[in-house]
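can u do me a favor
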């Protein structure tokens, strides 16, 4: 298979994208054609509606999967098409076939796209409106204290905020999705995870197993008690996918007092946890994880459950500070460095002088005595180090950017942001998402 064949397939003008934008929702509404009286129910009949546009009116809507609210978009253009005909708003295309495939010279078709400034503004406004609704939903989920849900793995019933529920999953079962402040539609997210577990499917690798005991042991031993970052199904649950650039994130974080999210979430009251080890399903009975997934040192085989502990170990045992060695580097550079170090250690080769040793202990001694911690960029900054040296390397899960200074700007700017939050960020966020 060639590179083109891998990434590109047959294209059809009225084809519905298989990867719709995360902005689209499942609200059922009856929609009327923009040019006739025929009606369709969205979103179920969206493909039928787009096919109708093409077959009956020779109309194609560009990038329809990126329209935040297709119902409102079509309602707007239905009104506008009463004033002017298609050629006035659309790009006219000449094709040598009719919609049914019959050959015919110079058949006219019409493309409605954001090349037209009016259309571009409409799409941007719809996206802005959707963003504002999402932020309102996000704030509700942060503040609502009436969330009641039984734990995925035990009989404990949380009756507090969604953050407390997620904290229970992490504290009691070592199951971590993300920081609660970074999530939205948490109810749907938990239901999605629960459905996969009920279907005996691993959340991370998404393989299926014969029974819960085998699934449980697989997820425990492989460290697969986290969601699959490659599965686009989860994109809609992360606020970062809706927001955009750092300037917008800064304003968003200031409005929601995001600094507090970096503090450890307090444990729920003891009385709420009294039955947390009483299992609702005996097959999950041992999933209390006193011995969770282990993070392996970059320079030896020592493991720890906590990332900070492994960093401390490397400084104490090896005189190597990963934090200092990668200071100022971005996320992807750090990923490359970790994978480069892993490979060099596997090959028993010095990180700096590249001397090869016959024994790992001799390499370890050499690195410490010679202080050969200089990581030469021309060595590690290679495309091959985007890929993990070891499968399921948990160290990679804790890599993050150092550049978070946008959390700590002056209070005066924060106050200005708070006073005009709705007006100031929505357009920026919409444009940022469009640019992505």
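np, heres the sequence
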């Amino acid at each position: 298979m060639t590179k083109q064949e891998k990434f590109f397939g047959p294209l059809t003008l009225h084809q519905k994208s298989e990867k719709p934008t995360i902005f689209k929702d499942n609200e059922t509404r009856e929609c009327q054609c923009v040019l006739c009286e025929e009606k369709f129910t969205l979103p179920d009949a969206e493909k039928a509606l787009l096919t109708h546009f093409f077959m009956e009116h020779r109309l194609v809507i560009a990038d329809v999967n990126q329209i935040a609210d297709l119902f409102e978009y079509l309602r707007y253009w239905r009104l506008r098409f009463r004033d002017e005909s298609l050629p006035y708003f659309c790009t006219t295309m000449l094709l040598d076939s009719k919609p049914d495939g019959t050959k015919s010279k110079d058949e006219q078709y019409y493309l409605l796209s954001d090349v037209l400034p009016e259309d571009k503004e409409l799409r941007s406004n719809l996206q802005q409106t959707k963003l504002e609704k999402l932020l309102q939903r996000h704030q509700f989920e942060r503040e609502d204290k009436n969330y009641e849900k039984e734990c995925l793995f035990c009989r404990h019933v949380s009756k507090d905020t969604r953050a407390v529920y997620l904290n229970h999953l992490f504290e009691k079962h070592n199951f971590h999705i993300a920081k609660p402040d970074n999530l939205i539609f948490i109810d749907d997210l938990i239901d999605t995870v629960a459905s996969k577990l009920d279907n005996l499917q691993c959340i991370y690798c998404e393989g299926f197993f014969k029974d819960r005991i085998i699934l449980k042991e697989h997820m425990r031993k492989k460290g697969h008690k986290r969601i699959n970052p490659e599965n686009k199904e989860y994109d809609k649950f992360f606020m970062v996918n809706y927001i955009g650039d750092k300037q917008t994130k800064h304003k968003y974080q200031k409005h929601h007092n995001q600094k507090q999210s970096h503090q450890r979430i307090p444990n729920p009251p003891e009385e709420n946890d009294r039955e947390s080890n009483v299992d609702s399903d005996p097959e999950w009975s041992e999933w209390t994880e006193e011995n969770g997934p282990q993070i392996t040192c970059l320079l030896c085989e020592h493991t720890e459950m906590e990332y900070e502990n492994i960093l401390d170990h490397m400084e104490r045992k090896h005189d190597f500070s990963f934090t200092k060695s990668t200071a100022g580097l971005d996320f992807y550079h750090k990923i490359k460095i970790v994978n480069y170090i892993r490979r060099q250690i596997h090959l028993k080769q010095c990180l700096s002088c590249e001397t090869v040793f016959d024994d790992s202990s001799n390499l370890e001694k050499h690195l410490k005595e010679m202080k050969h911690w200089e990581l030469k960029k021309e060595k590690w900054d290679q495309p091959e180090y985007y890929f993990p040296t070891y499968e399921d390397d948990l160290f990679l899960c804790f890599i993050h950017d150092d550049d978070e200074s946008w959390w700590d700007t002056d209070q005066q700017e924060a106050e200005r942001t708070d006073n005009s939050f709705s007006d100031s960020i929505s357009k920026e966020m919409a444009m940022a998402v469009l640019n992505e």
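The beta strands are 29-32, 39-42, 59-61, 91-97, 103-112, 147-150, 157-160, 295-296, 303-304. hope that helps!!
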